[in-house]
Amino acid sequence: MFALERTLTADIIPASRTETTLVTVVDQDEVVRLGVVAALRAAEGFTASAALAQADEVIVGRGLILLGARAMSAHEARPAVRSLTAGGATVILHSADERPVPLRSAIAEGASGVALRRDGIAGLLSTMRAVLAGRLAYSSQHAERLCTERDLAARLSARESDVLACLSDGLTHRQAARRLGIDEETVKTHLKSVRAKYMSLGRAVTNVGTLMREARTDGWLV
Predict the structure, then answer these.
(1) DSSP labels, 19-55
(2) For residue range 31-53, what is the model confidence (pLDDT) as tens digits?
(3) 154-218: CATH class
(4) CATH C-level class of 6-151
(5) Rounded distance, CA 176 to CA 174, Å?
(6) 164: Cα within 13 Å, side-chain hemisphere
(7) Backbone φ/ψ region at 136: left (φ over 0), alpha (ψ -120 to 50), beta
(8) pLDDT at position 62 over 70
């Protein structure tokens, strides 16, 4: 695994003229997958070694992997990032999902960079080159902000997230308590804590509905 340090990929790092990096492209969207492969063929220093629809099709080993995430689905990439990096691969999340929580989760699981689809091929290639140079990379200032700015998203505990997930599933406070093995008052305490965290960020939360809305905006809920 490459040693990492933070960088913005606005500082383009030229690819070597003598070395070619083999890249595995993983994306459920065939149009995106084939488009990235075509861009790699045209770019200096990169060759697509495989184009796959699912992460579990990857033969784990050392190499550079572009892992795609569709809108509202970056949370699904977390176990794939964990598995691939554990096997020695270097992973860049190529994401249409721009919610802070799942992007940060991918970095926490070992992703070496985040390239937003909105930043185009240039942003993707510059992120790849920065990662290969040993840096933790983002495709733009916007991408870096989503992944790093402290006050952009509420920081919830695992149990607070669990409580929200139960309510998102349509459970009452009592049913959520039963599912989680806690008492109903504890559920209410967690909700009060979540509300306080959002209020501290200046985000108006007046009822459970607005609380769930803000949690979805951040990516705590699908």
Answers:
(1) --EEEEEE-S-HHHHHHHHHHHHHSTTEEEEEEES-G
(2) 999 999 999 999 999 989 899 99
(3) mainly alpha
(4) alpha beta
(5) 5
(6) 26
(7) beta
(8) no
